[in-house]
Specification:
Elements: E1 6-14, H1 20-28, E2 46-51, E3 55-61, H2 71-85, E4 89-94, H3 102-111, E5 118-122, H4 130-143, E6 148-151, H5 160-169, H6 188-203, E7 213-221, E8 227-236, H7 239-246, H8 251-268, E9 271-280, H9 288-293
Parallel strand pairs: 1-3, 1-4, 4-5, 5-6, 8-9
Antiparallel strand pairs: 2-3, 7-8
Helix pairs in contact: 6-8
């Protein structure tokens, strides 16, 4: 390894729905974290790896910072706090607006005493003019000092290369933590479950998504290697939600399954036979046992 190679960890933080997962997916060139317009899409701390000639960046995507309302919410807040404690650089993602709301004020208070370098990343620059970006930089810089400021559009891929170069400047010299082909630490089954949850988030009405989880009951490759059979269950909290998820004549669950299967096939590079079921588990977001069963284990953070 050459002496000028840098490697380290970068935590992505910010309010819900500012584009953290989209940015991370674009940076590593592969869909690792699910995305949707609904808040609290990301529930776990997710790791993705970018490896270039100059260095290796291990991104930690975190749940959007918000006020917890149940045990799942507290778990998500813990995941975010844990992610920023032992990283080399923090990326604070915001939207282009000079108006600073209570969510960003709360984040600023948490970062005020941080010894870790903080890069302000202004995302969604494709939605505004340069003047708005300049006003945003001025407003946030008046509230807190940043080690660097980088405007980007994660959706369009604009200025992502500049952001990667900026991150690498704050990483220590060191070896690769992961081989070149590694892009995440997420097991395939977990990514499949998250892809199904993403499609449910995008298809379902507002009152349902926060109360759903997805479990993979079976994932088996057929002997000829051409097809992967996947049985999955969508968990919800109410009987009324179950009816919405299934839809009239099974139309909604069919729509979710069709959209999820396309992404899963793209990820696995194989044909997929996906079967979905729906079960009700009342108040699972306040149950330690059920949260652990659905992959949210606070002790593993």
């Amino acid at each position: 390894m050459e002496n000028n190679f840098r490697s380290g960890f970068a935590a992505l933080i910010g309010r819900p729905n500012v584009g953290k997962s989209t940015l991370m997916n674009h940076a590593v060139g592969q869909k690792i974290a699910i995305t949707s317009r609904k808040p609290q899409t990301t529930r776990n701390r997710i790791m993705a790896v970018y490896t270039g000639k100059e260095g290796q960046i291990i991104f930690l995507d975190t749940p959007g910072i918000h006020k917890p309302k149940n045990k799942l919410g507290r778990y998500m807040s813990h995941a975010t706090r844990s992610a920023v404690e032992d990283v080399d650089v923090i990326l604070w993602l915001i939207e282009p607006s000079p108006k600073i709301g209570p969510g960003d004020t709360m984040i600023a208070e948490q970062l005020r005493d941080a010894r870790t370098p903080v890069i302000l990343v202004i995302n969604k620059t494709d939605t505004c003019d340069k003047e708005t970006v300049a006003e945003t930089i001025k407003a946030f810089s008046a509230m807190q000092k940043f080690d660097a400021v980088v405007p980007v559009s994660a959706l369009r891929g604009t200025n992502i290369d500049e952001l990667l170069r900026t991150i690498l400047q704050f990483l220590p010299y060191g070896p690769k933590y992961y081989d070149d082909e590694v892009v995440t630490d997420q097991p395939e089954r977990q990514i499949v479950a998250e892809l199904i949850r993403e499609k449910a988030l995008r298809c379902l009405s507002e009152e349902v998504p926060h109360g759903i989880a997805v479990t993979i009951e079976r994932m088996h490759e057929r002997p000829d290697g051409n097809i992967v059979d996947i049985d999955a269950t969508i968990i919800c909290e109410r009987d009324s939600h179950k009816r919405i998820i299934i839809g009239k004549g099974g139309s909604m669950i069919k729509r979710i399954g069709t959209q999820a299967r396309r992404d899963i096939e793209k990820m696995l590079g194989q044909q997929v036979n996906l079967k979905l079921w729906v079960k009700v588990r009342k108040d699972w977001r306040d149950s330690d046992v059920m949260m652990k069963n659905f992959g949210y284990n606070e002790k593993e953070i």
